[in-house]
Amino acid sequence: MYIVPHFLKNEAKNLIKIKLLEIAIKITDDFIDNIFYPSSDNKYQELILNLDNNVKSSILNVIKEVIIIFDNLYLNSSDRKKYFNVGNHNKRSIITIFGLLEFERIYYYCKDDKNKHFYFIDTLFDLPSYDRYDKIVKGLAISNSINTNQKKGADITNNQINTLVSSLNKNTNCNISRQDIYLWIDKWNIPNVELDPIDTDKDTLYIMIDEKYIHEQIKMLTDKTNVETKNNYEIKFETLNEFLDYYFPKVPLLPSPKEKKKNFIMSKAFITFTDIDRNKGRSTLQNKVTFLTSSKNPWNEFMDFIPKIFDFKKIKTIKVLSDAGTWITAGLSNLKLFVENVVVPCLCEFHAKQKIKRSTKDENIIKSLNKYIDDDDKEGFVKLFNTLFTDKDDKRIKTLKNYKHYIVSHWNAIKNMKASKCKSSMESHISHNVAKYFSYEPKAYSGKHIQKLLKLRQHKENGLDIFGLYLKTCNNNESITLKKEELSFSIFEKNNSSNVPILYSSNSSVGKSLKFLLT
Questions:
Q1: Which range has the worst mean pLDDT, 12-26, 46-60, 473-487?
Q2: Angle CA(342)–CA(347)–CA(352) in degrees, nearest 5?
Q3: Which 8-state DSSP code applies to residue 133?
Q4: 363-374 helix and 349-359 helix, angle to the nearest 10 degrees
Q5: Interatomic CA distance for residues 12 and 15, integer angstroms
Q6: What pLDDT does 173 receive?
Q7: For every residue of 424-454, which 3-state class applies, written as one string?
Q8: Strands 204-215 and 264-273
Q9: Distance, CA of 332 to CA of 410 (rounded, Å)
Q10: Could you tell me what percent of the chain has a pLDDT over 90?
Q11: In DSSP terms, which residues pair with 90 in a beta bridge?
């Protein structure tokens, strides 16, 4: 094992200390000058603006000086002279949370194999290849976008990174766009996260379920099967247009108006909890867990997720609060994992009352129909509802029959909801978790991207730090599943050297030559 010469470490420490001291003195001098010799009447404003600008620029200067120090130390080290030759000094710029970092670093290539080459500084600090933004900026932007949307997330991040002075002068270096955040999320293999088990003494589990339709992007139509190529013999064409028409026949890029149809992605939301805590007019769900997906097999995914959190052996009653959609009722049997589990469907009162209000405008009839439901008088309800069919056209009668069938067929589920201690608040939850971000404004998404956004919203609602999650998993080459206790975001621990993986994953000459700085 290569032993680090202590004089190299000491030299690096001393050089960095000197630079830090020089920068600290400069910031202090500027700060004092702004107090005693302000250039404007608004002393406080000038003080704050200049301090913000000086601190951020000074931090960038510190990073530049550290890069120069370490690159020169490696350049003059015996390890470098033994294994690598020196190439060009190349410039690089990267956006950090402090602004634009511009620096030069030296290119090295192996003496024995010129195909082995690298930038020592890029490897040492794990800088992203061919990328203008560092991981911290990307993680911050993604986190901001999940709290709002990608456009607002970009604006917020730009304001956080740019100095106040540069923002006032419209001379900013950081201009993250909505498309940048889209691409960063698209490239990220977002992990599944197994939440910690919840130990509760409650024997009833409540599950609110609903769906929300999100506009899907219409795919461009291209008929590549009609394109022919003839490479085996020569074909002569009189004009360039003949050539283009032969090899690239015109095909419609968009469907004709008659073929156009609205495409939707059906997102599904499951909100699971054990009780409601009511305090001073405010209700809070206890042990709330959120699950969001746009999968066509939502029940399979949900039942892979939720039994790891709640112990179904201890649960006697599972109350499902929903609008009794077909896909919901078809999956209720999945919840019965043990003989002790009793699944109780409960129809949200909102949907039953909504059907009644859409059936008639007569307030007296509406009150009477609702009273029949409250009194559990199904016969009286049907008799009164049938009077609404009089003097209606066939289309309206069909609609009214559907409303009546919906209420009558779910009569027991309505009774179950009335008897339930906890009522449904699913409309507000799906509005807060899905509609607010994906359907309030006229936007469209691809199926793949909306699934990623829903997963991030789920992680956010379940208390995960999206910023920390990105920093820990952004380099994953494939989808993984993590347990919540594995998500340690303490990236500043002294013994944590995950930012230089080559030191521990390689016995190559590059790895050996790098160890002299950090061993």
A1: 473-487
A2: 160
A3: B
A4: 150
A5: 5
A6: 79
A7: CCHHHHHHHHHHHHHCCCCCCECHHHHHHHH
A8: antiparallel
A9: 14
A10: 45
A11: 105
CA distance linking residue 244 with residue 246, whole number of Å: 5
Query: Which pLDDT value is given to residue 335?
Result: 96
Q: Report which DSSP code applies to 306.
A: G
Question: Distance between CA atoms of 276 and 278, rounded to whole angstroms?
Answer: 6
CA 230 to chain centre: 47
- Give the integer Cα–Cα distance in Å for 208 and 203: 17
Q: What is the pTM of this model?
A: 0.78
Backbone φ and ψ of 177, nearest 5°: -110, 170
- Looking up tokens 């028409």 gives 245
The mean predicted confidence, pLDDT, of the chain is 82
Strand 117-119 and strand 99-110: pairing? antiparallel
**How would residue 37 be classed by pLDDT, with cut points 50, 70 and 90?**
confident
Q: What is the DSSP string of 142-197?
A: HHHHHHS-HHHHHHHHHHHHS-HHHHHTT--S----HHHHHHHHHH--PPEEEPPP
Q: Which residue has the higher pLDDT, 397 or 349?
A: 397
For residue 150, the cross-strand partners are none
Q: Quick one: how far is CA 398 from the chain centroid?
A: 43
Distance CA 450, CA 466 (A): 16
403-409: long-range pairs with CB below 8 Å, 24+: 403/355, 403/356, 403/358, 403/359, 404/359, 406/324, 406/352, 406/355, 407/352, 407/355, 407/356, 407/373, 407/381, 408/378, 408/381, 408/382
Residue 465 phi/psi, 5-degree rounding, is -85, 110
Contact 155, 128 (CB under 8 A): no
